[in-house]
Amino acid sequence: MVVIAHVSDIHVDAGERSAERVGRVFRYLAGLHTSPDAVIVTGDIADHGAEAEYERVRGLVRLSAPVLWCPGNHDDRGPYRKALLDEEPTARPVNRAYEIAGVLILMCDSSIPGRNDGLLADETLAWLEARLSARAELPALICFHHPPVTLGMPFVDGIRQFGAERLAAVVQRHPQVVALLCGHAHTAAASTFAGRPLLVAPGVVSTAMLPFETDALVDLHQPPMIAFHVLADDRRLTTHYRVIV
Ligand SMILES: [Fe+2]
Ligand SMILES: [Fe+2]
Questions:
Q1: Ligand 2 centre and the CA of 184: distance in Å?
Q2: Considering the domain 2-243 in this protein, what is its CATH number?
Q3: Is 170 left (phi over 0), alpha (psi -120 to 50) or beta?
Q4: CA of 116 to the centre of ligand 2 (A)
Q5: Which of 25, 50, 132, 230 lies most in the core, judged by the most C-beta atoms within 10 Å?
């Protein structure tokens, strides 16, 4: 059994509110009886994509488990590479592949610099295809920020990941893809994409409201939530959602 903790949309800025929430979530993860095999953070890490915000994130996130990141629309590839990953700042998509406990975890960059909607660049799709082909024997999780489908949330649906039929074609060539994991919608949700589960992590910083709940787009008072993805030995995935009080 492999356990992946899934955190998203931490939106760290210079204020205390986001830092308190992120601190609460990572203290909870650090205090678990058994450490998860990995923690993934699916984007919107720094609220303004500023170097100082990424440096603050590093101070808040101290875990023994590996923490795997991908950028969101609030992130900025240059400062993200420099201040979060200790790499040379470039504007190319930030894609990373990991093998953890026998699972291939592909952290893909669905951001488009300067825009709120998302797209997997041709370069990213080619990288994804190559990594899946190279390790076809491993169960794989494809992770990115923007959901590639509508979720019944007009605001989020308008800034979803577009061009998703290209991703669907990649997924259909690789039956070992167990699920797709994303954020951006600030709501705990489950859907499907290309015949596989699509699991949306809730937001740490806020909860987006559904159009039939209220006129408000966002509720800042609901507590942060996270997901745990549990992959059984038979490659069946179960997702649990947790409120962090
Ligand atoms: Fe967000
Ligand atoms: Fe986002």
A1: 4
A2: 3.60.21.10
A3: alpha
A4: 7
A5: 25
